[in-house]
Every structure is written in structure tokens, then in C-alpha cells.
Amino acid sequence: MNQKIETQRNQKTPVGAVLVVGGGVGGIQASLDLANSGFKVYLVEEESAIGGKMAQLDKTFPTNDCSMCIISPKLVEVARHLNIEILSYAEVVKLEGEPGNFSVQVKQKPRFIDLDKCTGCGDCAKVCPVEVPNAFDAHLINRKAAYKHYPQAIPNAFAIEKLGVSPCKASCPAGIHVQGYVALIKQKKFKEALALIRKNNPLPAICGRVCTHPCETACSRKKVDDPLAIMYLKRFASDWEYTQAEPEVPIIEKKREEKVAIVGAGPAGLSAAYYLSLEGYPVTIFEASSEPGGMMVWGIPEYRLPREILKKDIDFIKRLGVEIKTNTPIGPHLSLDDLFKQGFKAAFLGVGAQKSMKLGVEGEDLKGVIHGIDYLKVINAGKELHLGDRVAVIGGGNVAIDVVRTALRKGAKEVFILYRRTREEMPALPEEIKESEEEGVKINYLVAPQKILGKEGKVTGLECLRMKLGDPDESGRRRPIPIAGSEFTLDVDSVVPAIGQSIDLSFLPQEREWNVAKKGTLVVDPVTCATNVAEIFAGGDMVTGPATVVEAIDAGREAAISIVRYLQGIDLYEGRGKKLPIAEVTPEGVKKHPRHHPGQVPAAERIKNFQEVQKGFSEEEALNEASRCLNCGICSECLQCVEACLAKAVNHSMTEKYLNLTVGSVAVAPGFELTDPSLRKEYGYGHYPNVITSLEFERILSASGPFQGHICRPSDHAEPKRIAWIQCVGSRDPSINKGYCSSVCCMYATKEAIIAREHDSEVRPTIFYMDIRAHGKGFDQYYERARDDYGVRFIRCQISKIIERPKSKNLLIAYVDEGGKIVEEEFDLVVLSLGMSASEKSRNLAQTLGIKLTPYSFCQTSSLSPMETSRPGVYVCGAFQSPKDIPETVSQASGAAAFASEIISPARGELVTIKELPPEQNIAGEEPRIGVFICHCGINISGVVDVPSVKEYAKTLPHIVYVDENLYTCSQDTQAKIREVIRENQLNRVVVASCSPRTHEPLFQETIREAGLNKYLFEMANIRDQCSWVHMDKKKEATEKAKNLVRMAIAKASLTEPLHEQELKINKRALVVGGGAAGMTAALGLADQGFEVVLVEKEKQLGGNLRDLYYTIHGNNVQEFMHSLIEKAHNHSLIQVILNGVIVDAGGFKGNFKTGIMSGTGMAYRKIEHGVTIIATGGEEYKPKEYLYGHDERIMTQHELEGKIAHQAVNPKDLQEIVMIQCVGSRIPERPYCSRICCSTAIKNALKIKEINPTAHIYIIYRDIRTYGFLEDYYTKARKAGVIFIRYDLENKPEVSLEKEGLRVSVYDPSLQETIVINPNLLILSAGIIPRDNKELATLMKLQRTQENFFLEAHMKLRPVDFATEGMFLCGLAHSPKSLDESLSQAKAAVSRACTILAHDTIMVGGIVAQVEEEKCAACLTCVRVCPYNVPFINEQGVAQIDVAKCQGCGSCAAECPGKAIQLQHFKDEQIISKASALFKENVA
Amino acid sequence: MKVSFFPGCSLEGTAREYGESIDAVSCFLGIKLEELPGWTCCGASAAHCINEFLSVSLPAKNLLLAEKLNHDLVTPCAACFNRLKNAEKTLIKESQQTDAATPFRGEINVLHLLEFFSREDLIETIKEQVKRPLSNLKVVSYYGCLLVRPPHVTDAKNWEDPQALDNLISLMGGETIFWPYKTECCGGSLLLTNIDIVRRLIGRILDMAREAEADCIVTACPLCQANLDTRQEEIGKAKGVTYNLPIFYFTELLGLAFGLKGTQKWFRRHLVDPRPLLKTKKLI
User: How far is CA A853 from CA A285, A843, A860, in A?
Assistant: First the structure.
């Protein structure tokens, strides 16, 4: 409230929007409450979908509801809410400003799928070749890189996960999608793999042989064993193509006019030609020599690159229409300018580096000296040139190796290489060097030629000098330094210098000025390949100097892009030259699987001829090799999804986005992460396959999980029978800074044990625990049911280690049994009950938001207001505040929403969107005119069901006016079309045959409503989930079934009627019953939101239980707090306090309640009209009948002790021995519930006494210590302070007697197995909490109660503060025992829930509700009894009456009514029967 | 690379083959293990149970000797290692608490031989020198307790699942089998006082090794080796099983993998003769 005042003082209108961070159940609830209370909500979620951990759970305790079933309606509500904007894949990066007006920056990761276009059909995932562990399924199985978080995910759309560019792609000069084609090969999609390679490289067969494959050098797999044999995989794909019939060339979509000339048919020219042709340009290559291929034909020997391979790649390019004019040099006879005169519009130059570099030593002109490239050209042209017996080749590059191996094949007897550095510096590929050595080539390192010796003009020898290595030069290699005096001479017949090539630019027209570099290369723009002449581009060796084939190919392709842009007048630079981040992976746990080596022709054989040395992979080898890929980038960018997505939603060029938002307040709910099980290595998680985490077990149990709910264990997929749970893994463990209790593990383990038993009655569950913490509503009964009815064995023993039997993979656990003996037992499966930890992401978020954390890294909050963070205007809820279960999270979420909306309540309604709808058409008396829309759902339906035949069939059915089929019926354009069709054809009913009404019915209803039809005139047939998906292999039958389903839907549609909802005004006043902590907080909360409140208290003053409390365990002064609340309540202008008030009658419904109250000494009656009711009638301490309570003044309850200490009636200094007995009146057959707070109250008072008198001996006799959450720290503190805890069992309760010498307490300690006797000064009874007398109120207001007479909420998990009756809410002890801070949170939650009604002026009621035909009603009361919401009643006329405002439309009464007097609208008997009879009707077509 | 070597007493007696194989392997790798001149008993077995002062001062004497030479101190025995480390930690802690200058400055490291052989540079050398890979030899590694626990004394990083032996075996081309008994106690300290417990503990280790289908067990401690090697027959007899599991020192396997001569001489000293196994695996 202080914040609100401050905001007003600043004279600023707050912003009516809230940022909610975290899309788990907490964030979802906060968003819904806020949006329903008139505020705009931005919901930021880091995953691709909301749902959080709850969506991953199987069942929920203690009701065993399916977690997904109960959260999924909430998900859909969020998705469809006009005022909630989901920002998925997003994180908050900045928060500035002040309460009421914050500016927020949100970073959104690219999803690579357009949310507006994606229909969630999943075709992208079907074709995606990359599998990664599915985090949603706790990594038990894999999912694709294109994925939906889970089937019910909201947004209902896929996403593509990318980690970055894979190192192979990043290192490829041509930027080939390497990971992509490897992934496609793995999937046997060889054709697609090759097509992907050709997107960047039109010479795959060549590059599959002679590439320098920097991709393999970069491959991350080398961190595990060896890099992938990527080059051979490429070769495999292209070789495979040539085993097929004529390879398909890509289709050229648009032919263009402008001719392009290319000079040089080397790799650069061919590449440019290919990509220009693809764009439709006519291309002519002018090649000076007799063959196309450039250095690939003249420089590379055939044993490395067979000529037919070269020809195949070039032919492929030619088949696109490229013309290659050989023997046509560009130069004096035909100049570049001549080409432009002939009508060419642009040119690409790729003439290569043809001139050999000279050694520059004496004797280089002797006969017998031939330069490397010149020699290769001669031989490759098929001519003969004998070099003699002894050949010295000078140089260390690939050309030197090619020369020496060629010479060997041409009959030279002794060949050797002279290289001036060492092997390490040699630029030739290591495998080439190795192969040459196998063939008998000698390499002399650290030798340089000095002089070529000759006789009669012919080479006779070579004078050389030895070298040593000096410091590195500019190339990074160590510089060779001559060793003086080391000259020696070699006898040789010929010398072949192979030390490089240079560029000949003499063909360029001299009249222009060309930009030439010092080393003689042509200078071009590094990004665009543009020369200084606008229409001329260049690339390859003539630009780079001698380089690789793949670099030339890339230059050709980049130049082609530039030429296209040049010809089309597009900016050459836009979007080019950017480097994307590389996905660096550190492979862990990858099994070694060394690289496959395709064979080679043995050296002795291969030197005899020029046959290809290297063999290729077989298909099996290729598949194996491809499966070694680590998928570094996750998405491989194979682009299959682009092809598969018919909705065109895939966009691989998406980038990160930054969004700037303005909001008034912030609610954070980032949740938790499970504690890392590897912190406790003694349990062997990760090593022992059958030791799993509790989340893994949830997924195993889940019907939608990896094993469809079939319980099996990971090692052998056998059904485990002996299952053990180990509790407190990562909880209550200060050694790893997890000193707190995670609050939920006892219950979820119990639940998992029960569900496992339900799945398989032979399962024998055992839970090893320290204390069973079943402190929630209904939890203890659940625990007892598990133990007594399901045979779950609970063993109180903390387990120190697990041992695996090596062969069976069963697990041995040693524990101490009840008799104190160490027992070792074998289990089939062990589940680690992992605790909750604050995630690293939440820690980062806290830093971004500027909120403080606790030492455990959870969110720091004030002890009496757990939703307020250290930063005003920022509120927290859920497990980030402290470990808690779902209902507490939901309740806190509503509470946080109340705080977040309170400070911006003046701006309520300002930023919300309200949909304007056209008036509804009156169709009364019209014959049905039905339109049917049948969906293909991409290929989801049409791939199985023959949609056109269903369409034709539908046309034959009665009342059908219009039938159409759509690719995606849910897409936005189809929606527009449906609206148009309705108007054009005056349709009055619409049927959609597509997917599930669960996700899509509201969308289509909205569509027809926008076209002026009542939304109930819509009907749906589910021909996807219930037809095409489940009958994939039976296309014919599926088509028949689809027809049946459509016929049924049409039959019902023809009988549907418009239903009209009634608008009712809402009374904006609230009634709060109960003036304790919860009631006052609720009243103040509502009043601060601007609503009038009537607060009724039956006592003569406000305060409730607070009157008897003095301090909290955290040290707060309760009395001070209470007085301030009372003062505020009495002084608030919007609160009317009624003391001594009793409710005497009640009526009405949500928005319009009428309650009669008698109050004051005279018991004056008055009627209050109000829109909502909050019940906060509280509870009280049980007055014990046990342990001689009331017989001796030294025996008292904790409340009494607290009062006496506060009023100094008891002085702890006088006490030597104090005994406290826990669970007095709780957890006993008469009162089976746990009172939740007694353990911490006892510890609170024990610590208080210890604080005053440290030498006092305090014994707490307990059954389980239930200090959940951070209360555990106080338990630890108490033990450290010397408080002694003695356990007892219900069977052996402590005995109290009054002896002469004083009190005597004896108790049997099961761990010591001895009876302990204590004579205390005081005996304190930790008496439980019982509800206040509320029977009359419950009857008057028709409120449900539990067996223990606490009020019962609408749903234990997701509606913890709502009553089943709408408009009524509950909080505080009236709901169940809880601590003060929890009561206050819940009161705030009730405020928030109440605001979702009070924020509106009117409500709509009716629609799908039950209606009574009065004349048929026999007033048998059946409906009154079956209605779960207590709606029907027998009215004054003696017939059942159902208020439309209260009816939930569940249909229970209609189904049960024996006289068929009740009909549920929209599901009337005749409508249902028409559907059924349509099913059995003859198929008329 | 020069280090001081603290052989401990076992190398002179029950673990002679350990000592010899250490000499042979380190000589082959060109490592100089210089025996700490004037070394004395580390105080294991007895001193630490009876006299705390003695338990620290006995090893401390050796630490001071080593520090004088300014070389790291390497010991092949897990018990010696544990005592030396304990003394090191105690001395350092004392000097921190008292501010008084203690004679030990803590400038040298105390290493177990296994740790020493796992140094990155040595790993590389070992990798290069493997001439006769231990193909098909299925090995479970056994670290025992004192090599790794308690971690605040031993500085072991992965005390629940140590890896050094497994890594060396992989380097040598052997097949390591994961088993959960790597750090279980063999009962070494009860060898003379409570033989029943020792039998139970060893029996269990041997059973598990058999269940894991290991051909042999590799150790890095003379006490563990002796304990596991000597009692197989009597335990087997009582249970009616034949174990016949050779228990190697890791240095013996290194010698084998390097193709050193004279390995058979070591193996002859084992009670469970490893030679038949090595023959069937064609390793000798």
C-alpha cells in the first residue's frame, strides 16, 4: 500500500499492464488472474511453450488427477486470452523504472518457425533428420531438432532448436550445410543429401575426392575419437546418384534474358555458371583449353580424380543449359569488350593461376628441368614425357606430391621430394604424403636446391644445402635457415620445381585500369567478388592466388549471387558477409566408435597405372559413418522442413529479437530446477542405468510419456517389481548447501509408489525416508492409504550408498531395520527423490530484475509477506520463493497477482482489448443450411484419408449447401474464407472436420460468431487425432471412418440451436466473513483495489488467533502487526466492519449475492448485497483431552506457553527440564490430518526458551518433524542449540503421570529401543488446529466441507481458494491448518480471485446449461443430490429449479434424471441420438 | 622430471614385484624416481591408532626431508600416501592457525604413484609407448579406500568414482569394466586382528569382480593387492567356489603393455598365478 501512495504522490498514472516471468503453473495463474481483472499481461517463458514442470508430471497428489488433464484447460485459456501475450523462447534482459511504470527489455530467441503460420501439424518434425534427447521426457527418449515441447503445448506450434552453426559448416569455404547432408545420409535420404550439397557446391563428386576438407579438421567428433569422414560421405552421395537413372537437375523457375559470360571453365567458372543458370540466366563459358575443368583436369592426376567423375559433374552443369566454348581464349582475338558488344550483360572471370613459379637458381633452363604444373599438364593431356630414372621434385605442396606420384607411375625408378622445412610444415595433405610414401617416394626434409648441375645442356645433378628451422614467418611456419657449409650434391636425371603458380592477367583489356595486387592477383571486393569494373566479377585462384577447389567454388557462387543482384538492381551487400556463432560442443558420455576407412588399392598395384587409388564407402559404411555425427548445431539446416511445411512457416533466417515493453508491475515465477543428482555420487546416478530421478519416473508413469505409461526400467526395459525411493536427495543436506526441505518429495514419492502399484499390482514399493512430511491438506490420509491399502513399505533410514550388481544391474541397498539390524536388500529400480533448487536462470533473472536472493539462492521475501521481493513493484510466487507444491504455488500466484494489480488498480481496464462483434443473425424458422470444411492438415489427414472423396461424400448429405477442403482450416486466410463463405451462401450451420475440439473448437466458434452466427451453430468432427493418426496404415478404412464422423457431425449440426447468454450486472461489493489475519488482509486487499468491503466478525473485536500470538519463528512481533491491521481495517473508507455479526441467511449467485446478517448487542438484522464472498472463518487450537491436560497447571499447550512467556507468567530461567509432545490431537484416527504448524511452533518456543536460558533441557517428543521448506533451518538450529528430539510411534505414545515428585513422562524411543523417563518442570502439548464451528454457515451458504470440517475448495490443486460455487472464495485456517504467512498469502490470493469478478461490470450467464421441463419433474431430488456444485433445488412450485448463473453445464443432472425432465442445452437427447443414429445409417454414397 | 620416491616398507617384502615393476617402468619411461634418502616409517598400520602426535610426526619427518630436496614426493602405497597427506594437511593447518613458523612450508606436493603416472605429459608418453596392447583383457580397477578417502585429506576429485586406473588400462588397450566396488574397503587394517571381517569384505569384492565378468583386478596399493591375492583360496573353499582372479599392480600391466622383458619374474611371485590367464589372452 505504501507503494501505491508513493505512485500517487508522483502524480503519474500507472501503466495498466503487468510483466509475468515464467510460464509454469504459477505464471499461468498470475497471468489469468491479472488479465481477467482488467490488465494487459506479457507472459515471458524461456521454453518454446508454457506449462512448466507441472506439464511433465504424471498424476498429482492427493487426488491422483492427471496433471496434464488439469493444466491443459488453463493452457488453452491463456492461449485464447485476448489480453495475454505469450512471449515464448524469451528472457528478460533489462528492467528499469519504478513501481507503476517500468520499462522492460525482453530478448526473444529465434524460433525459426512463424507462430502466425504454424498450425502445429508436425510435418517438419517428421522429416527432421536430427534427434536430440527430449528434455520434456527427462532425456529418456529422443525428439527431433524441429519439435513441439509436448503434444498439448501452448503456443500450439513447433520450434527449431539451433545451437549455432556447426563447426563443419562454419569451416567449409563454400559454407555447405555439412551437418545437414550427413544427417540426411544417415536417414538414407541420399538424393536430398546431394541436393543440399548442390545448394553450395555443384561439384560434389569432385569435392568428394580432392577437397582439402577443412570440415574434418574442424569436426568436434575428434574430441571423442576421430573426425567424421565427411569427404567420403560426400563422395558416397554423389557416387550413389550415378548408380541411379539420369540424375534430376533442379527446375529453373523463371527464364531470363540477360546473357552472362564466364571466362574459364575451372571450378570457379563452373560454379558461377551453375548458380546463374539456376536463376534462369543464359550462361556461356569461354575456355581457352580443349577441355573444361581447369586445374581439375590439367593439374590433378587421374588416380585421384578419374576423368569420368569430372565429366559427370560438368555434364550435370551443362544439362542446366550452360554452354561451354572450349579452345576459345579471351585475349587479343576475342576481348572482354567484344563479349559485351555481343550482348553479354555481365561477366565472371575465373582463369586461375596458370604460370609456374621459377626456382630462381642457376641451371633452371637446362633440359630435364620442367615445372610441376607444366609436367602434369603434359601427362594429363595424354602425352608422354619421360623424366628419366632419378627424379627430384622440389616443394612440399599437393602439386609436388602429384608430380612425384605421377612420375612414379610413368616409370621413374627413384623419385624423391626435397623440402626445405620439416613434415610438420608441409602444406600437402597428410594422407597424400602417407600414400606417396607407401608408393616408395622419399621425402628429404630441410633441404633446399642451390644449383642445378648439368652437362651438355642436360641435367645431371642438383646441388643442395641443408637447412634448420628458425623463428616463425608471416605464414606462422618456422622459417628455414641455411646451414653454412652443408652443401651436398645429388645425381638426378630431371628436376621438377613445384613451388607454386602465379597469375597471368595479360588477357584483360589494357584500355581499362585494373586493380592488381602486389603478388599479381586481381583485387575484388571480398564479399561480393566485384572488380573495379561494375559488370565484371572475378574469383578463384586469379584472385586468391593458388588455392583450393572448394574456395574457387565458393567464389563462383558468391559472384553468381552478386551478378544476379547486379542485373536485378539489388544492393550487392545486403545481408551478406555476416558470421554466425559457431556451436562449440564438448561431447560427454559419447561412446567411442572410430572412423571408418574406405579401402585403397594396394601401393604395389596402384603405382602400375592411373586407376583411382581411393575406394568409396559402401552404403552400410556410409550409414555407420554418418551416424557418428554429434549434431553440434542441433538443427543441421538440411532444409527438409522448409520443403515439408506446406504452410510456409519455416524460416531459417530468423534472428534474435529485442522487445521493449512498458508495464506497471512485475510478477516473477521462474520456478525451480531439480537438484543435480550427481551431487550425491554415492547413488551412482549416471553410472547405474536403473537409478533414475523422480522426474524420469514421472515420465515413465505418464501415459503420454516415452513408454506410454508402461513401467519399465532403463537397463533392459524389463518390468521392475522391487522399486525403492530414496528421499531427501539434495534436500536437508547442508554439505551441499541444500539445508532446506524441498517440501514435496515425500508426497510425490508416495504418489509415485501408489501409481506404480496401480499400473502393476506386482510392484512392491519401498520408500526410504528420514521424516514423512505429509503436512498438506489431505496428505496424511494419503500417506496412510499408501501404507495400509497399497502396501507401500516406508523405512525410516537415510541410505548412504547404492551398489549395482554388475550382471543383473539390480541394486543393493543396505539399511538399518526396525530391530536395529543392518539389512541388505536387492531392488530392480531405484528412484532418487530429488529436491528443488533455484535454477541458474532464476539467479540471473534476479540479477537482471535487481531482486535479492537468500543464501540458498531462492528469492528473498519479507517474512510476513512472502510475495514481496526486495524491489518494490516486483512480486514473486511459486518455488522460486521457496520449495512448494502446486496448490501453494497457484495460491501464491494469485496473491502475487493481487499485489501486482493493487499498485496499478487506477489503470484497470485501460490497456485491455475487447472484441467488437457484429449482431447475431436470427435464424429462427430457417431450414438448416450447412457448410462443411474438411481439413487436409498439411498431410496429417490427407496423407491417410482421401479428403476429396470425403468432400464429394459430404455433398450428398442432407442440408449441405457448401463443402470445401482446405490445406489448413485453422490458418488465418482460411478463417477469412470461412467468414466469407458463410455470408455468400447464407449458411446457418458450420461443420469443420479436422483435428481436436480441445484445441480448435473455440477458434472456429469465434470465426462463425465473427460472421454473425451464434457460436453454438458449430460442430466439429475429429478426423485427425481419432482417425488419420490412429489408422495410418489403413487408408481405405480411415477414409470410410472419416465419412462416418463427418456424417455424424452433420446430423448433429442440423439439430443445433442458437443459445443465448444472459447479461447480468455485477454488484461490486465484497463480503468477507471472519476478522482474523486472513479476513482483515482480504478486506484490505480488496479495498485497496478500489472495491467496497463488508467485513463481518462474530467476536466483539477484530484479530482472531493473532490475539494469542506474540512472535513468529522468524522473530516478527505479531501483536504490533495485528494492531496495525486492525487500525487499517477500521479506518479504510471502503471497509465497513460489522462486529458481533452472525450470518443468518444467504442467497443469490456470482455477482449478485444477498446475505442477511444480525449484529450488535441488539442483534439487528440487515441484508447485504454483494458480488463476491470470502470465507475466512479461521480455526483454533485444539483443547487436549490427552496427557492429563487440565489436571495440572504445569501442563499447557504451545499457545498457552507462548502467552505465558510473553506475559512473564513463565520465566524460562526457572526451567531445567521441559518436555514437548507433538501431534496432540493430530494424526490420530479421530483427526487423521497433520496440523502442519505444531512442529515449527514447538521449535519456535524451544528456541525462545533456549535463547533466554541456554542450559534448559528441552525434549521434543515427536513422530515426524515436519519443518518443510526453509523452516528446516530452525530445526537444524534447535538441534545445534541442544534441543533433544525423541521419536515415538503412534502405537507407543508417551505416558504422562503425576507423581509425588512432580510430572513424569516416559516414552519408548524406537531408535534406541529403550524407554526414556523424564521429570520435566513443564509439559507442553503441541495441540493441533481444528476449524471453528462453521456448520451453520456451511449449510446457509451451501459450502462443502472436508471430513474434518475444514472448508473444501473447488479443486485441491488448481483452484485452492475458490469454492465450487462461483463467486465464493476461502482463505486462512478455514481452509486448513497453516502458518501466519501462508494465511496472509492465501488471503491475497482470494483478493485476486475476487477481482476477476469485481473487475467486470456485467457477466454473461447461460449457454450450455441444464434446463428443467417443469411438467416432467417429480421432485425426486436426484438432481439435487448429484450436482457437484449444489445448484438444483426444489422451488416453491415443488419442481426442480436450476439457476443459469450457477450451472456449470456438466450434465450430471441431465444424465441422472429418471424422468428425463432435465436437458443439457447443446447436448440434448435428440442431438446426441441423431449423432448416434447417423453412425449406424447406411453409407448413402 | 625428478621426484623423490618414498617406497614404504611393503616394497621390500610382500610387494617386491611392485617395486621391481615400478623401477622397470619408470626407467623405461625415463622418469627418475629418486629414493628419499633417510626415509623412515610412515606410521600407518599402528601409529595412527595409538598416538596422534606420532601419527603426524612420523610422516612429517619424511615430508621435511623431501622439502629440503625441493622435489615432489611420490609414494606407491595407499597407506603411506594417506599418512603423508594427513601430515601435510595437519602441518599446513597448524601453520595457518598459529602463525608460528613451522618447519614445513608446504611447497612440495605429495603424490601417489598413480596420480603421478596420470599427469598429462606422462599419459602422452605412455600412450606412445604401448607396444603390446592388452587386447581382450577385461579388468576391474580397485582403488581401495585410502587412495581416495577422505577427500579433504587425499584431495581426490572424484572419490566416489575415481578414474585414474581405468584411464591407464584404457590407454594400455585393456577393457575396463565399470563395477561398484572400486573404493570398497578390503579390510587391510584388520588383516591380523579380525580376520572374519576381512574374509567377508574380500569375499564380497571377489564375488562382484566375478559377477562383473572381470578377468583380473588391478590395484595401486601393496596392502590391497596382498589382501586380495592371498586369501582367495581359503575364502573360495569356505564358499565352495574357485576365484582364481589374478590381482595385478598397475605397473606390472604397464610393463606388459610396453613389452618389457622380465615381467614373468614379477608374476611368479603372485599367489594367484596370472600367467595362465595372460597366455590364453596371448599377452605373454
Answer: 69, 8, 5
